[in-house]
Specification:
BirA Bifunctional Protein, domain 2, 2 domains, 11 helices, rod-shaped, binds 3,4-dihydroxyphenylalanine
Length: 345
């Protein structure tokens, strides 16, 4: 039996030495030290030996088991380290590999247009003012000379939250709010922001869109100031050889009121599909601030006057970039949005 044991040990040690990976070594362990392995068998068979031989043989089996276990463990450490090393080598980073390009984002076309308009007016000394999108009926209508029941309210079908609160239908309430806050001081602001109207969405209508309002209030503010400002604006946005034309119009909060057209930037005035053969393109509404509006905000219309204008950046972006459907601005199709990553406007 001693001999058998000796043979078993040598056999096991050889297999341990020969195991070339962790899995093979595990198989060796199960084969020799497992519950059904020969060493366990020998220990189990101990009872059949004569009593005087048992201690000696027991000690021998234990020594063999310990030797095999130790050999297994040290080989295991070795093989595990080798496995990690191999994995590290496999996974090493090839620094010469060209990196994956990180796609650079770009501004949304509407953001570009709004920022361009803001830059122009900031360069003219205007400040930017903002107001709430959930607005009081008072500021959205009443303070703009549109009392309850005024027929011009029908032009701006609204989302009401309660009888006195609604989603603002235009950015003009920021005029009233700013004047009220400035308490008689001179004002020169533009107000960009979102507005809402109960409209059925189609290629040219959206229930939510953007506006930019302008307001200048002070002594000796005249219609010619408005015209000069709009003329410079048209040239900046649509090209140095643009001309503007003011047509009489009506807004309850301005008197007189005008609509501003620019000479067509595509055909230069000859008539084409962009200007619908008229040579002119309508861009915005404007006028001299109505005395009632000044009065309601605490200004004295016999001392100060003002002009105001309001425009829709969607319309301007559609014209500038030839976008044929306003819904493109809101459907977030990356194929549309990513076309506007050129640096020139
Ligand atoms: N608030 C008007 C609208 O939404 C646009 C407008 C017209 C604003 C004339 C003005 C203005 O400030 O003077 O239709």
């Amino acid at each position: 039996m001693e001999q058998q044991l000796q043979q078993l040990k040598e056999e096991a040690l050889k297999k341990i030495q020969d195991a070339s990976d962790v899995k093979e070594l595990n198989d060796v362990r199960v084969a020799y030290l497992g519950k059904k392995g020969p060493i366990t068998d020998l220990l189990k068979g101990m009872g059949k030996l004569p009593a005087e031989e048992r201690p000696k043989m027991g000690a021998l089996v234990n020594v063999v088991r310990e030797t095999v276990t130790e050999a297994l463990e040290s080989r295991m450490t070795l093989l595990e380290e080798a496995a990690i090393q191999a994995q590290l080598e496999n996974e090493s980073i090839d620094v010469t590999l060209p990196g994956r390009p990180a796609p650079a984002g770009n501004h949304h076309p509407l953001t570009r247009v709004v920022e361009e308009i803001e830059d122009f007016f900031i360069s003219m000394g205007y400040e930017i003012a903002e107001g709430p999108e959930v607005e009081k009926d008072y500021y959205n209508f009443e303070a703009l000379n549109l009392p309850k029941g005024h027929p011009a309210r029908d032009m701006q079908d609204s989302f009401y939250i309660s009888e006195d609160i609604l989603l603002r239908t235009h950015t003009s309430p920021v005029q009233a709010r700013t004047m009220e806050a400035k308490k008689g001081e001179a004002i020169k602001i533009i107000c960009p922001g979102k507005v809402y109207r109960r409209d059925n969405d189609d290629a040219t209508h959206s229930h939510q869109f953007t506006q930019i309002e302008g307001l200048v209030v002070g002594e000796n503010i005249r219609m010619s100031d408005l015209k000069g400002t709009l003329d410079l604006f048209a040239k900046k946005m649509f090209g140095a050889d643009r001309e503007i034309r003011l047509r009489p119009s009506f807004f309850p909060f301005t008197e007189p009121s005008v609509e501003m057209d620019i000479s067509c930037f595509k055909c230069g005035g000859a008539g084409c599909n962009v200007c619908k053969k008229t040579g002119w393109i309508e861009i915005l509404g404007a006028g001299m601030v109505h005395p009632n509006v000044l009065k309601m905000a605490g200004y004295d219309p016999s001392v100060v006057t003002g002009f105001a204008f309001g425009m829709g950046p969607e319309r301007i972006a559609m014209l500038k970039y030839g976008v044929e459907d306003i819904r493109h601005f809101y459907t977030n199709d990356i194929r549309f949005i990513s076309q506007f990553n050129r640096t020139e406007a």
